[in-house]
Amino acid sequence: MQNQYVIGVDYGTDSVRALVVNAHTGAAVGTHVFEYPRWKKGLYCAPEISQFRQHPLDYLEGLEESIKGALAGVPEEVRQNVKGISVDTTGSTPVAVDENGTPLALLPEFSENPHGMFILWKDHTANAEAEEINQLAHHWDVDYTKYVGGIYSSEWYWAKIMRTIRVDSQVRTRAFSWVEHCDWISAVLTGDTNPLTLKRSRCAAGHKAMWNEEFQGLPSEEFLVELDPQLAGLRQRLFKDTYTSDEAMGTISAEWATKLGIPADVVIGVGAFDAHMGAVGAEIDPYTFVRVMGTSTCDMIIAPNEEIGHLLIRGICGQVDGSIIPGMLGMEAGQSAFGDLYAWFQQVIVEPVKALLGEEAAAELRKKLIPYLSEQAAKLPVTENDVVALDWINGRRTPDANHTLKATISGMNLSTDAVKIFKALVEATAFGSRAIVDRFYQEGVAIKKVIGIGGVAKKSPFVMQTLADVLNMPIKVASSDQACALGAAMCASVAARIHPDMKAAQEAMGSGFDAEYHPNADKVAVYQSLYQKYQSLGNYIEQYA
Ligand SMILES: Nc1ncnc2c1ncn2[C@@H]1O[C@H](COP(=O)(O)OP(=O)(O)O)[C@@H](O)[C@H]1O
Ligand SMILES: O=C(CO)[C@@H](O)[C@@H](O)COP(=O)(O)O
């Protein structure tokens, strides 16, 4: 049987892509990307208060268009042999739903209300609520933050729920339950979005909702009511069990099978976060550090439970049994802004050009600017007196989440130009990465290999070389342009029982690596000294912020 196909659907921050893959060879036979139209217009967002919302219609239109587009050019034989679909999404990206599991923004009365929409991972409006969760958890009988690095983040589920029900009484009254994007969209494909029965992702629940077997599920009702009395009763309308992404959520609904033109028995896998399925796609194995490098970074490691499970790793985004590969401890860390820091600097330069010279000139500049700055920055020597910056333009995700922190650029004089600033920003993102690697080492998790995937890993040799120099470690880049979607396809192949487990799927479908960056011995020592400056600057800013 060499003619079975699976589809991986990967919802990123700006767009969703679908990838049709031969489940036996990993060969991609069709792909299509769909950009979220409402998001692209900036609707429902308020960056000045860190509010980032996405309308469920962007996701539904994206589901149909991306899969249809990916299947558009494939032979009928492929279409008829699609066996499974799995979906990954960003997260924590939850939404308030009614009794049927319908996001409130799909009901007429909430259609323009950002609080009835998905609250995107990078929305930091719930900083105060995250702090309240931390304060209470650290003084409760059981510290519910212990498996999420000891610090709850405003990027996560409970903080977002608390904030929303506080600021919007209509949403609070109408919200029956709350569902993560990866759970909802997978359930949509099965035609059954009942929030009481849909299979919730272990990955989302464990890393972002403080779910753990030790707690018999989510934090207790008493804890939640103490946090906010308005949370009373919600726990029992959420979930107790969670599922790993090798399992099936169900079978495709007749409506979606017809809409997509695929068989009625296609298996829909349990969903998970993009980075986690990306790590599967990048052929993660124990103690390999897989970095999904795009707008943000998500850093993934797996290790046998019996070797690492007894540790409580401080300051990361959690350690969850089976969140990446079933049976292994999955660990997550990351940076809230990586490519987004470069995108910010690009915007600083392009905006006045747009205002003065018009959109055409701005578009041309936007296309050329980062590649130009990278090319020029790569030619600069690295010295101990270089400009040093902090990468916290969107707060700090890890180590030790703190989304109130801000970025800084230091050490400029009249000779400092755009190229030197850009170099410092790239180095800042690499230093932020180094802080994460150091933390894993300090906490007893040794990293044996580094693999990069995602847009920046594929597009920027300059960033990757700088990272190798700063980490003083070689870094391989996965060949697939779509490692997250490929990982989702691998998960679909296991959920559809084509492969017995993730390892077998990785072996059959993995696409290998196409680049490797080795540290430049002459830069490693200077970077060590600049990294110390980065740390001192960070300590200073953190103290006086
Ligand atoms: N040539 C480049 N060098 C460095 N960064 C780049 C380059 N081109 C794009 N980027 C960055 O890549 C990021 C987007 O990454 P990508 O993986 O495509 O998206 P996402 O994170 O939404 O999945 C943006 O933040 C952008 O600044
Ligand atoms: O935080 C997570 C996963 O835990 C990601 O979904 C989030 O960083 C989004 O990443 P992308 O922007 O899609 O690269």
UniProtKB/TrEMBL annotation:
Keywords: Arabinose catabolism, ATP-binding, Carbohydrate metabolism, Kinase, Nucleotide-binding, Transferase
SUPFAM superfamilies per the UniProt record, alphabetical: Actin-like ATPase domain
GO molecular function: ATP binding; D-ribulokinase activity; ribulokinase activity
Superkingdom of source: Bacteria
EC number(s) stated in the UniProt entry for this protein: 2.7.1.16
Carbohydrate kinase FGGY N-terminal domain mapped to chain residues: 5-281
Classification via Pfam families: FGGY_C, FGGY_N
One GO BP: L-arabinose catabolic process to D-xylulose 5-phosphate
Record field: catalytic activity: L-ribulose + ATP = L-ribulose 5-phosphate + ADP + H(+); D-ribulose + ATP = D-ribulose 5-phosphate + ADP + H(+)
GO CC field: cytoplasm
Pathway in which this enzyme or protein is active: Carbohydrate degradation; L-arabinose degradation via L-ribulose; D-xylulose 5-phosphate from L-arabinose (bacterial route): step 2/3
InterPro entries for the chain: ATPase_NBD, Carb_kinase_FGGY, FGGY_C, FGGY_N, Ribulokinase
HAMAP family registered for this protein in UniProt: Ribulokinase
Family per similarity comment: Belongs to the ribulokinase family.
PANTHER family given in the database record: FGGY CARBOHYDRATE KINASE DOMAIN-CONTAINING PROTEIN, RIBULOKINASE
Protein name: Ribulokinase
Protein's organism: Runella rosea
Source species taxonomy: Bacteria, Pseudomonadati, Bacteroidota, Cytophagia, Cytophagales
Protein encoded by which gene: araB
